């Protein structure tokens, strides 16, 4: 069953282009798109899904007119999203947005390797992630900036700076909430990893600015979580060598160390000039060279291959010059999975996206130099006045290592203090964190900033420790499990406690709860049956007394009507009011269903040429299967694959964060 028609996309259809232009021009996107199209995003099935009911998901940008989440009509700029509805609502409705870094790396990493509910079992089958972040929060992954992952844009219109990126994101959210108003009033958290340490503060600031301009329609942005974030180049470039010494990658005093120290001094002198000139940038080639030199200087030939340390997890090795770009191993399954025609169709990936999914896009990264953007660290103090921020770090990561993160915190001034000094001479304690009896890491907190160090963890902490990161998330966003169905009771039958009914422990938690509920119900009824006779007698007596009272009352007042009297309408009114919320939700669902019926009818009138179109598109995806994963900056391109076999890779290398 197909749910969208490739022939009705903007760009191939004049009416579509016109309609898109008009819609985009409307100042009230809410009215322009609301209710018209959200059903087109509904995911009806997902190839390789695990047993059990499909999670409730929406994805894509496919609408009949393809006037989807287009952020920049002049450049054909489109952002792709994948949304998972929460499995439980705890004390509040929440939406967590997850972004991967790069710049130019797809947030499908987050969806299928890190915090999303599914992981790949092989390149065709999914399994559940037991630490998925959609347990108590709606979870939204967005491929951004334009051109990243399934998102696309005309090849001459990649973004260059963080303010453009944030502006696009706000437009995206505006349209997303217009399409899905049920999430508009959620508490919103921005989360992500690595270079998203730049994206997230910029987007948060843009949202606050937007809220100031729309005080009647604010988005409840409540906090930020950044994992192994690239936030402060000044402190983080400076941490490469100290971290390498500490981890024994480089021996102090060695010849290699001398050469690396020399490169480090060049980097430092440039950074200090830039600090003085007020033109500090996010990406400084002479400082990037410190990292790439560490990787090349410490690489070793073993047999026919040169091996280097994995810059995302220094416990591991990779082939030179990838040095971690081939990691994590799940990518070997994620890439072919996300190129399957059936998956593209399920996720409503627009055929306008002509190339197969790549984890990281060279052209996006190459264009996004952020030359005119100040590093995000400069936004953090202002943001910390408005919301809590959590920075977490896997301790085995080199590229955005924890020493740099601790250094940036130590040197940052916010909310009337510097670093984790809570009062002169007193430091916020480093509290040890254990998870299920194992030492998991360290928590430190002051004045709205929380720092969490994860032991034995790579750059992708949720990849290594999904359940620990969910625990971290749930603490941070204040999930109150007790509010799900009230206070848990210590219920035993014949002294037996029965199944653990904790929510969220594993993907079957809801099923387990339901099983337990039915078991208890059955036990209760069994008990009733046993004492049935006694109960009958009690009921009979009670009925007799009640009947007598009614009879007396009637005689006194002259009828039932008088008993209920004027209170009746109020009573009814109350009921209606109480039901209003479920009702309006129900109506939305109803509209959904009607849309589906509508689409069914439409699905019947595809003509042959449309199917041919689809085949042509899918073969383009297949043709792209051979494409290598981006590993060298500006090297591979969506349109012209310049990258293969390019010489002198290290010199032009841009690493992905
Ligand atoms: C940074 O700014 C300083 C002072 O404005 C200037 O001297 C220097 O050339 C600038 N550096 C770069 C690399 O543009
Ligand atoms: C911390 O954030 C809250 C909002 O969550 C804000 O009201 C408060 O003022 C902030 N704390 C400080 C010390 O600024
Ligand atoms: C994890 O990290 C802790 C603290 O660094 C260390 O004591 C422990 O040995 C590590 N465990 C493993 C399995 O590596
Ligand atoms: C979840 O439930 C299904 C069906 O009841 C069962 O096959 C599966 O093994 C369960 N998985 C876990 C992790 O408990």
Automatic annotation (TrEMBL):
Gene3D superfamilies referenced in this protein's UniProt entry, alphabetically: alpha/beta hydrolase
Its biological purpose: Protease with a carboxypeptidase B-like function involved in the C-terminal processing of the lysine and arginine residues from protein precursors. Promotes cell fusion and is involved in the programmed cell death.
Any one biological process term the GO annotation gives: proteolysis
Catalytic activity annotation: Preferential release of a C-terminal arginine or lysine residue
Sequence ranges of Basic and acidic residues compositional bias: 619-630, 642-657
Cellular localization per UniProt: Golgi apparatus, trans-Golgi network membrane
Keywords: Apoptosis, Carboxypeptidase, Glycoprotein, Golgi apparatus, Hydrolase, Membrane, Protease, Signal, Transmembrane, Transmembrane helix
Protein name, as recorded: Carboxypeptidase
Origin species: Glutinoglossum americanum
InterPro entries associated with the record: AB_hydrolase_fold (IPR029058), Peptidase_S10 (IPR001563), Ser_caboxypep_ser_AS (IPR018202)
Signal peptide boundaries: 1-35
The encoding gene: KEX1
Region (Disordered): 488-511, 603-657
Enzyme class: hydrolase
UniProt cross-references to PANTHER family, sorted A to Z: PHEROMONE-PROCESSING CARBOXYPEPTIDASE KEX1, SERINE PROTEASE FAMILY S10 SERINE CARBOXYPEPTIDASE
Family membership noted in the UniProt record: Belongs to the peptidase S10 family.
Upper lineage: Eukaryota, Fungi, Dikarya, Ascomycota, Pezizomycotina
């Amino acid at each position: 069953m197909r749910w969208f028609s490739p022939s009705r996309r903007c760009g191939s259809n004049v009416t579509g282009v016109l309609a898109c232009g008009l819609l985009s021009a409307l100042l009230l996107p809410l009215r322009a798109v609301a209710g018209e199209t959200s059903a087109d995003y509904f995911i009806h099935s997902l190839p390789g899904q695990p047993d059990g009911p499909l999670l409730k998901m929406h994805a894509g940008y496919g609408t009949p007119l393809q006037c989807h989440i287009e952020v920049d009509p002049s450049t054909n700029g489109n952002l792709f999203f994948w949304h998972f509805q929460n499995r439980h609502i705890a004390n509040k409705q929440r939406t967590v947005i997850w972004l991967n870094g790069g710049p130019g790396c797809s947030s499908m990493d987050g969806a299928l390797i890190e915090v999303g509910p599914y992981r790949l079992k092989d390149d065709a089958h999914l399994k559940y992630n037991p630490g998925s972040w959609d347990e108590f929060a709606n979870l939204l992954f967005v491929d951004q900036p334009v051109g990243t992952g399934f998102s696309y844009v005309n090849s001459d219109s990649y973004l260059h700076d963080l303010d453009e990126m944030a502006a696009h994101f706000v437009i995206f959210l505006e349209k997303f909430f217009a399409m899905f108003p049920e999430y508009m009033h959620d508490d919103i958290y921005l989360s992500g990893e690595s270079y998203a340490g730049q994206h997230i503060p910029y987007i948060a600031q843009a949202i606050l600015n937007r809220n100031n301009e729309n005080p009647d329609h604010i988005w409840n942005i409540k906090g930020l979580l950044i994992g192994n974030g690239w936030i402060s180049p000044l402190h983080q470039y400076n941490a490469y060598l100290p971290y390498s010494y500490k981890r024994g990658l480089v021996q102090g005093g060695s010849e290699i160390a001398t050469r690396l120290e020399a490169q480090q001094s060049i980097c430092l002198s440039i950074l200090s000039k830039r600090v003085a000139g007020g033109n500090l940038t996010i990406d400084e080639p002479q400082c990037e060279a410190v990292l790439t030199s560490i990787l090349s200087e410490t690489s070793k030939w073993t047999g026919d291959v040169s091996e280097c340390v994995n810059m995302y997890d220094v416990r591991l090795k990779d082939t030179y010059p990838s040095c971690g770009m081939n990691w994590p191993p799940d990518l070997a399954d994620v890439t072919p999975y996300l190129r399957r025609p059936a998956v593209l169709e399920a996720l409503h990936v627009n055929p306008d996206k002509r190339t197969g999914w790549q984890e990281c896009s060279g052209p996006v990264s190459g264009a996004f130099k952020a030359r005119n953007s100040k590093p995000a660290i400069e936004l953090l103090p202002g943001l910390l006045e408005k919301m809590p921020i959590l920075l977490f770090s896997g301790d085995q990561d080199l590229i955005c290592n924890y020493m740099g993160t601790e250094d940036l915190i130590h040197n940052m001034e916010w909310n009337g203090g510097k670093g984790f000094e809570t009062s002169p001479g007193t430091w916020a304690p480093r509290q040890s964190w254990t998870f299920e009896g194992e030492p998991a890491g360290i928590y430190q907190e002051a004045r709205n900033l929380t720092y969490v160090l994860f032991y034995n963890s790579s750059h992708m902490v949720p990849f290594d420790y999904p359940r620990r990161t969910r625990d971290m998330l749930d603490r941070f966003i204040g999930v109150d499990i007790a509010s799900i169905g009230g206070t848990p009771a210590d219920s035993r039958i014949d002294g037996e406690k029965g199944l653990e009914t904790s929510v969220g422990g594993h993907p079957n938690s809801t099923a387990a709860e339901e099983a337990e509920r039915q078991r208890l119900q059955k036990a209760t009824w069994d008990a009733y049956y046993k004492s049935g006779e006694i109960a009958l007698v009690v009921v009979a007596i009670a009925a007799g007394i009640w009947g007598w009272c009614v009879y007396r009352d009637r005689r006194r007042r002259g009828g039932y009507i008088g008993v209920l009297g004027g209170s009746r309408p109020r009573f009814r009114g109350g009921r209606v009011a109480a039901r209003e919320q479920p009702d309006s939700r129900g109506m939305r669902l109803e509209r959904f269903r009607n849309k589906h019926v509508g689409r069914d009818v439409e699905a019947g009138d595809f003509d042959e040429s449309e199917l041919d179109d689809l085949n042509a598109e899918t073969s383009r995806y297949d043709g792209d299967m051979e494409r290598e994963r981006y590993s060298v900056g500006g090297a591979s391109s969506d349109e012209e694959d310049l990258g293969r076999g390019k010489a002198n890779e290290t010199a032009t290398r841009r690493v992905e964060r």
